[in-house]
Design a protein that fits this description.
Helix content: 25-40%
CATH class of the largest domain: Alpha Beta
Number of domains: 2
CATH superfamily of the largest domain: P-loop containing nucleotide triphosphate hydrolases
Bound molecules: adenosine-5'-diphosphate, magnesium ion
Number of strands: 14
CATH architecture of the largest domain: 3-Layer(aba) Sandwich
Strand order of the largest sheet: 6-7-8-3-9-10
Radius of gyration: 25 Å
Order of helices and strands: EEEHEEHEHHHEHEHEEHEEEHEH
């Protein structure tokens, strides 16, 4: 599949001397939702600002649907809509005027029908004549999306679309982004909320300290790295784990009062049969009984994308 955006050997050092991005390689597939996930200061805004032509790269190249962003800026930029991280808007304009004006900036002929469609999609139609300053925060953000979509871009960038948005509105935003994707727009969003990437993305890129440390299909990422843990509270503390249980690679905790079993989340459903090894909770419980180890309680925890992310990010530098 031909990527709609390709980023090659991209690096950025700001005038201050700070290197915000190192040798980024990234391809975005048409029609996907790509989440760029990373902690604050990782370089997310810098990266999308370069792709959108707002910030110059120090090294490397960005091509948008065949157009080099540096050499062929207007053509490349007209394919892109950007919803910035900061809520800036023309407070004294109406919703209708601001969206219409934004379309004009890209040299597109006026299209009231398109603006109407966008405002309806964003549930802003009944506010079209309202001044932006009279709208709620959630609506202002949707106005920014309407502005970004006014010139019919093929790719929409959303920089931290739900930062500072309460949980309920966050869900609305997620639904909205999915419906935009379903209408054919490729979506690239940045987020420092793991839950957001987990919920929304087809693919996830993890960025940390200016390096893209991983790009992976979300489901594949969860499958590869997801782990579950079963903790057993023992009736009486163990000094060491009996050799008969070696295969489970158990760990003792709580001064011998807890046994911890870690297993791949994707083996859990079939009791470990697929793994072809001695794993699985059912087998473990059976073998514990045989070894006369009794427990009074047990619980499982699932490592989420959060744990994976923390592991990835803390492993580096
Ligand atoms: N104009 C600038 N000049 C110097 N440093 C900058 C500038 N903009 C951002 N930075 C630094 O680059 C790093 C990445 O910033 P940014 O791309 O905004 O990260 P993120 O969006 O992931 O939070 C941060 O350490 C930030 O302080
Ligand atoms: Mg940012």
């Amino acid at each position: 599949m031909q990527p709609i955006i390709s980023v090659n050997n991209l690096s950025k050092t700001y005038a201050s001397g700070y290197q915000a991005l190192r040798n980024i390689q990234l391809e975005i597939h048409p029609g996907e939702i790509f989440a760029l996930l990373g902690p604050n200061g990782a370089g997310k805004t810098t990266l999308i600002s370069i792709i959108c032509g707002i910030v110059n790269a120090s090294e490397g190249r960005v091509v948008v649907d065949g157009h080099d962003i540096a050499r062929d800026f207007r053509a490349a930029r007209s394919l892109i809509g950007l919803v910035p991280q900061e809520l800036t808007s023309d407070a004294f304009e109406t919703v209708w005027a601001t969206a219409t004006f934004s379309r004009g900036l890209f040299g597109k002929p006026a299209s009231p029908a398109h603006i109407e469609k966008v405002l309806k999609e964003l549930s802003l139609w009944d506010k079209k004549d309202s001044m932006i300053r009279t709208l709620s925060g959630g609506m202002k953000r949707r106005v920014l999306i309407a502005k970004a979509l006014a010139h019919e871009p093929r790719v929409l960038f959303l920089d931290e679309p739900t930062a500072g948005v309460d949980v309920e509105l966050r869900r609305d935003m997620w639904d909205l982004v999915r419906s935009l994707r379903d209408s054919g727009v490729t979506i690239i969003l940045t987020t420092h909320y793991i839950e957001e990437a987990e919920e929304m993305a087809d693919r996830i890129g993890v960025i940390n300290k200016g390096e893209l440390i991983l790009v992976e299909d979300k489901v594949e990422l969860m499958r590869k790295l997801g782990k579950k843990q079963l903790t057993l509270q023992l009736q009486s503390a163990l000094e060491k784990i009996p050799p008969a249980l070696d295969a489970y690679k158990l760990a003792l905790a709580g001064e011998g009062s807890e046994l911890i079993y870690t297993y791949d989340a994707h083996d859990a459903d079939d009791g470990g049969q697929a793994a072809g090894s001695r794993s699985g909770i059912a087998a473990l419980l059976r073998d514990l009984t045989e070894a006369h180890i009794r427990f009074k309680d047990l619980h499982t925890t699932q490592s989420s994308l959060e744990d994976i992310f923390v592991t990835l990010v803390s492993d580096r530098r």
